[in-house]
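ok so heres the complex, two chains, lmk if somethin looks off
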Amino acid sequence: MHIDEAAPVGRMTQWRQRLSEAWDSDLAYSFRGSPMAMISALILLIVALTAILAPVIAVQNPYDLTQLFLDKAELPPIWVEGGEAPYLLGTDVQGRDVLSAILYGSRISLLIGFASVMASMAIGISVGLICGFAGGHVDNILMRVGDFVLSIPTLLVAILVSALFRELLPVNLRDSFAPLILMASIAITSWVQYARIVRASAMVEARKEYVLAAKILEVRTTRILLTHILPNVMTPVLVTATLNLGLAILAEATLSFLGVGMPVTQPSLGTLIRIGNQYFFSGSWWVVLFPAFQLGLIILAVNLLGDWLRDALNPKLQ
Amino acid sequence: MKSLTKLSLPGIGLAAALMLPLAAAATAAELRWGASRDIDSLDPYSYGSTFTISTLNHVYEGLVRYDDQLKIEPALATSWEDISPTVRRFHLRQGVKFHDGSAFNADDVLASLTRVSDPKSPLRGNLPAYQGAEKIDDYTVDIKVTENYPLILNDLTNILIFDKEWLVANNATAPTDVGAGIEGYATTHANGTGPFKVVSRKPDSETVFDVNKDWWDKPRHNIDRIVFTPISSPATAVAALLSGQIDYVEKAPLQDIPRLKQSPGIQVLAGNELRTVFFLFNRANKLMASDTGDKNPFNDAKVREALYRAIDIDVLQKKVMRGLSRNTGSMVAPAIPGYVPELDERQSYDPEKAKALLAEAGYKDGFSFTFVCDNNVYVNEEEICQAVSAMWSRIGLKPNLDTAPTSIQTVKFESGKFDVGILGWANEPMIDSYSILVQVAHSKTGTSGVFNWGGWKDAEVDALIDAAGKELDREKRLGLQSKALLKLKQNVDFLPLHQQPMAWALGPKVKSVVQLSDNKSRHWLTVLNK
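and the predicted structre for the whole thing:
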């Protein structure tokens, strides 16, 4: 303990030690051995950074109507004849800079993707822990609810939920709540997977000696669930979450593409693709192609990373 | 087929569009119509939609009809005369047969007029001056209207005639109503006298019309069958036309016109239609959703003028409407009687003056309001509303744009749940400015002001319209109407934008069609290459 108190130098050493431990871990070793994982992580990092820094690097705020100039509408990318600075990837029919719209759109897509995965994870883990630990009627009822949710196609439920929420909200709040509605409608449809995984693992863990010991010591149930069982079921949950991130981003894009997602005044990638789709035949390919490419890139990177994580954490493959 | 499941939704629509007409491609003279939307019902009295009624006009006919110059000509009636200021006598065509073989006579006209003027009929507003009808003999009918009502013939072009025996036998004498969800036998079955008869109908998928060989008129068309397929995605419809899977599109996307014109064998017919698109204001005591509290800024003409002057119509015309719309300051197109050239001049685009006007009215920092638009009715409607929102934002206003399909927005308009809204008026089927004046501009009283969504009221305008409604002298009547239109313009009661363009695209199989400024498909005048 006294090393800790020996001021900054000691703390630095400790951090360095932790970092090197992490660097030497199985996971990091596997990461260093997989170029695919490294490339995917790099792509995601770049996408995430540019998305977060969008207000700084974008030449235009595409959500601010006063910055859209109709006379600059439908300019082609800068390397095509007729292109104009600073509109690097051209503009859409409202004079929205395609690159800025992609940066802001990726922000929304990533945000909704992450948030909905977090939310569905939170719901799924809670339900799974309760079911796995409590068993009996509670387990039966909650799991049948899950079966019910699974028996309806995800997208249909998401459309229904988001349409319902939209109608319930007053008009002036609708646009600002759109990301929240999307997040909720995706989370509501995708928690069951986590619940099933956690429930199965929790049932196994709940019968193990260390849990029995904790029970005998009269440790509170919530404490057993959160500090004893949860850490032991997290690995498969994390792998599923990574893979589901891609699905969630895709679900958001699909909903927006169908017109029940982000409004045209705050386009996400799906909305941009929907808008661009109408102008594809007229020769304005840049309005649809670049957002579609960005969406494809994000989902590919997330999926490759998820695949790698699944293999790296699978004890049977080691 | 497996790979189909991976296509996006419009992709599936495209695939369906590609496959459906192929199945029926055996018939030689077949017109495959890729429609922008489905008709609402097979019952022409079920909804006051120009598109539905004009499509059903292939099956059902009125007593009179517009010819290929938009002049009224005889149809099921051969001649008519004035008996008194309130009675018009119609002599009916003899020897006309309905599709089921029964003969057409005066009873059918009476039954149809009773059905369309029923208090529950959604189409009763299309016959505003109707007072009753009387059978004189089997082929003579007297129609009673309000005194000196000048436009009964125009109204009757769109009152399509049913067979009485058919209505009675199928328990269909009561009107149906698409808006209220009331259906009946006539919603799914049809029996008219027109040049085509309905063979089959699958709503939202396909409706097939076959030629009526026993039609009373000498056909100018040479079509054996029309296959009507709604394709709601414009890009999909263009793809289907380019690949030769459909022959006719009545709403070609403006942005695709250059591409279509370059394609071999494709003809594009574009022009300006009669419809004027304009914005309207809620004139209630306070706004629906705004930060202005208990005041309604739109009751101040200065504020309305500020919104008018903030619209850069030239760039809108160039970019959003692809140079194809006709900018206007008038509420009616030049072809509509009642139009005078001084109506057409717009207030100039002047954002600085607009800001000054707002400041003068006490809204220096602008205010927020709800801007309600449909996204599937008028040409490039959603893009117009977005672009205008941006222009209004630039003078400091904060419009909250709310776009959705018309089925959702109409309810908001009719219940006054909007601050600024959009409407397009073609003055159809009357083809007279009395239509917009009595249905839109007039205050809501009796059968007048059905579309007075914002509760505007100007006693002077009302008086002018009422006087025109009982003036038989055409010149005097049009003078009154022009005066009313000028008054609306002077008050900036509405913000006119343009007469919208129409664009039809024809595949190589179609030799000629007749396109009139009312933008209605009339395939009994269409000729195919054989």
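quick notes: DSSP finds 16 helices and 19 strands in chain B. thats all i got rn
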